[in-house]
Amino acid sequence: MAENKDLEKIVSWAKRRGYIMPGSEIYGGIGGIYDLGPYGVALKNNIKKLWWKTFVEDRDDVVGLESAILMNRKVWQASGHEAGFTDELVECKKCHQRFKADDVAEGKCPSGGAHELTEPKAFNAMFETYIGVVKDEDAKTYLRPETAQGMFTDFKQVLETSRKKLPVGIAQIGKCFRNEINTKDYLFRVREFEIAEIEYFVKPGDDEKSFDEWLKRWEEFVLSCGIKKENLQNYEHPKEGLAHYSKGTTDLQYNFPFGFKELAGVANRTDFDLKSHEEASGKDLKYFDEEAKEKYWPYVIEPTLGVERLLLAVICDAFEELESRTETTEAVTEKEIVLHLDPKLAPVKVAVFPLVKKISKEAREVYEDLKKCWPAEFDESGSIGRRYRRQDEIGTPFCVTFDFDSLEDQKVTVRDRDTMKQERVEIKELKNYLFEKLNII
Ligand code: GAP
């Protein structure tokens, strides 16, 4: 796994290669907000697509939802977020820096010396906003800090329209906002990010078994993104540290360059949310179990994951800096970066190079044909070695070179990013050849 110092290398590579860049950078940026460049958004979309296929399309017991980011303020009152979605904030009396109390060791300001911290005070991490033209308390609501509440408020309707019976899950991927006191560790703790989560409704009593199953499914999914098993571990929250709604939570931690930290988690939310929303809205949110002929609030198992955290973990796991391994006619002094992405997540699946510009027209025909099937790039500038390096850096699994022999034998050379093995493949067989290797979502 990447050492601590490597995060800096990843940050600079990600900016240089159009993966991740600071938001509003021309104005000096904005704390905890990042933009994803062309390759970054493609990788993130592929992660989301894989997640949706795995948990919604491939299962009969989970349906999808897209609920709105803005919800009635009463949702956040009933869910407990307005009163309790808080962090302990401390401020240095001397340098006026603010910190999350959990982040300051032994209650001392990290600037040291005579710096003294204030007593902690609760700080609500939801961003406030107002609906309509009048900015008063009646118009106030929040940008959602989690997608889960949409699944609870829409629970009855989704169940009725999808004609599903328990156990059933509602899945959603969407933007969430948290006004974090301190943002740090790059994409790890940001103020705007996406969560992919499922609220899985089960009969009370079946919750613990379901919890264990979801923990396994969650780990399998992360592994299917190409992450190495040795970089994952579980962390069970002690009872006294649980969120207000949880009976038990286990985090799936990833070995980020700054240590093992939460990547995803599974929580047992019991019947807390449905019960609270029924009490607050006056609407019956119980489930009628036809077999048992009884009505109850289902228990909810919630597997959740931060998409930006997974994006960062996928990049950290795939990132390798090595001594130059690519033959090139140009003098190469700098080290080489290879992004060993799982092919199904790679933003560009294949790149096509004419050996020289003279045969670009014929090579371009091969490229145009491949582009109908997959995101592809055509590159005719610089030495072949240089072109391989550009593609290795962005994680393209295969490069295809069209040379003078191709004009005669109708074959091209396919080069594998990880093994660097080269194979001659007939142009008419190329799509089948790549299709088998790309393991497309
Ligand atoms: N509905 C449950 C829920 O929101 P959470 O643990 O607070 O649980 C879910 O958040 C996931 O969102 C976390 O596992 C983490 O991956 C991600 N996450 C939380 N805060 C984040 C932040 N400030 N920046 C990036 N990702 C974050």
UniProtKB/TrEMBL annotation:
Entry keywords, A to Z: Aminoacyl-tRNA synthetase, ATP-binding, Cytoplasm, Ligase, Nucleotide-binding, Protein biosynthesis
Record's subcellular location: Cytoplasm
Catalytic activity: tRNA(Gly) + glycine + ATP = glycyl-tRNA(Gly) + AMP + diphosphate
One Pfam short name: HGTP_anticodon
Binding site for ATP: 178-180, 188-193, 262-263, 306-309
Presence of keyword Transcription: no
Similarity field: Belongs to the class-II aminoacyl-tRNA synthetase family.
PANTHER family per UniProt: DNA POLYMERASE SUBUNIT GAMMA-2, MITOCHONDRIAL (PTHR10745:SF8), GLYCYL-TRNA SYNTHETASE/DNA POLYMERASE SUBUNIT GAMMA-2 (PTHR10745)
Entry protein name: Glycine--tRNA ligase
Species name: Berkelbacteria bacterium GW2011_GWE1_39_12
Gene: glyQS
